[in-house]
Amino acid sequence: MTTGHMSGPVRIAIVGSGGIAGVQADHVARMGGTAEIVAAVDIDADRVGAFADTWNIPKRYTGLQALLEEAECDIVHLCSPPSLHREQAIAVLERGWSVLSEKPSALSLREFDQIAEVEARSPGSFATISQHRFGARAVALREIVERNDFGPLHLALCNTLWFRPDSYFGVVPWRGTWDSEGGGPTLGHGIHQMDLLLFLAGPWESVRATAGRKARPTQTEDFSTAVVTLAGGATAVAVNSLLSARETSYLRFDFASATVELEHLYGYGDDSWRFTAAPGADEGVTRLWESIPPGAGSGHSAQFASVVAALRDGTAVPVVSAQARQTLELIAAIYASAFTGAEVARGEITEDSPFYASMSGDRVPWLAPQGESR
User: Fold this and answer.
1) Which end of the chain has fewer CB atoms within 10 angstroms, the N or the C?
2) Going edge to edge, which strands form the sheet with 235-241?
3) Where are the beta strands (DSSP E) in the chain?
4) Where does residue 285 rank: exposed (0-12), middle (13-18), buried (19+ CB within 10 A)?
5) Which residues of 79-234 form beta strands (DSSP E)?
6) Each residue of 286-321: pLDDT tens digit?
7) Residues 51, 56, 60, CA angle at the centre, nearest 5°?
8) What separation, in Å, do the N-terminal and C-terminal C-alpha atoms of the chain show?
9) Is the distance from CB of 267 to CB of 299 less than 8 angstroms?
10) Each residue of 142-154: b (16+ CB within 10 Å) or e?
11) What's the CATH class of domain 133-296+327-357?
12) CATH: 3.30.980.10, 3.40.190.10, 3.40.50.720, 2.60.120.200. Which one for 10-130+302-319?
């Protein structure tokens, strides 16, 4: 775990120079000198060269090992394909640096636990991008929930209804496969909303789910549904889809005295939220919501600011492993329930479960035993 205070800008290396890396580089450039990108890595020399030139990054490498041997930095941001995250995170942690990984941070609970095992003996921290946790209004709502100001939560909805055409899966070779992407919209897309659900509504206890492949030319599912029992007694219903022409990311929380809704696509602001007081509710409930001051929306920039602050203070980089694992475990349980037909409890997917090593559990009903389409 990182200890001690840091002087000077936080030194960042970015692994992978695709679209998301450019977004992150732009955020760093806007941080007023508190952080700087000192190196970039990509197996494509031309691409990493162009990326480094665009963002004035002094060092560029075509392999992670060269970065580890030749550069000095504080944190490595993994913007690489999901199947590479485990190996790369472990190498960086063994070097003694911190890691900030894009989602999914691992393709399975086994991979995640292998990373966490190395983290436990490393000076560095392992953190997962969970940008929706950092919007100002989400932070305020979490505090309201913790104080029980709106009364108990009864029902929550958590929908990631996106659209990805067949052509999307041909852009890069790792999309749509269990071995390379780890899962479909449940793992690769809905993870963002489900992570925010757990951040706001607390731990989960059990899940009963379905998943299927209706239309897309993939090994993985293109939709899933889940009914989740939360530890506080509420029920959450989650739908993840790549088949939805009108795209939306939607969360709804029905408390005893109010309904709070959030609708956006890839990131929210203050105007993405909607509040409705329950009939007969005390006027103080509405005043409380209206008293929340304007603030930053969700996005990587808000999390980056927290990451940089943690590194400068010598504390664990958010979002820490235990928090990220809870979300990943829920996703593994959704697949396990969908492919076995059984309700799955938190903690039930242990090392002897096929769903611990792979989200598919080698039980995908629409694939032959060899993993080829029927």
Assistant:
1) C
2) 273-277, 258-264, 243-255, 153-163, 235-241, 223-230, 204-212, 344-345
3) 10-15, 35-41, 59-61, 75-78, 98-101, 126-128, 153-163, 204-212, 223-230, 235-241, 243-255, 258-264, 273-277, 344-345
4) buried
5) 98-101, 126-128, 153-163, 204-212, 223-230
6) 999 999 999 999 988 889 999 999 999 999 899 999
7) 55
8) 47
9) yes
10) bebbeeebbeebe
11) alpha beta
12) 3.40.50.720
| Separation CA 8–CA 308 (nearest Å) | 11
Domain ranges within the chain, ordered by starting residue: 10-130+302-319, 133-296+327-357
Q: Other C-beta atoms within 10 Å of 113: how many?
A: 15
Q: What is the pLDDT of residue 301?
A: 87
pTM of the model: 0.95
Closest CA to 120 of 38, 223, 287, 2: 2
Provide the residue type at 267 as one letter: G
Q: Both tokens of residue 153?
A: 């939560």
Residue 369 has what DSSP assignment? Answer: T
Q: For residue 166, how far is the Cα from the chain centroid? A: 24
CB atoms within 10 A of CB 284: 12
Tokens matching residue 26: 């732009």
For helices 321-340 and 191-201, angle between their N-to-C axes, nearest 10 degrees = 120
Rounded distance, CA 59 to CA 52, Å?
8
As a 3-state breakdown, the chain gives helix, strand, coil percent values, each rounded to 5, of 35, 25, 40
Structure tokens at 7: 């002087």
31 and 24 in contact (C-beta within 8 Å)?
no
Confidence (pLDDT) at 5: 66
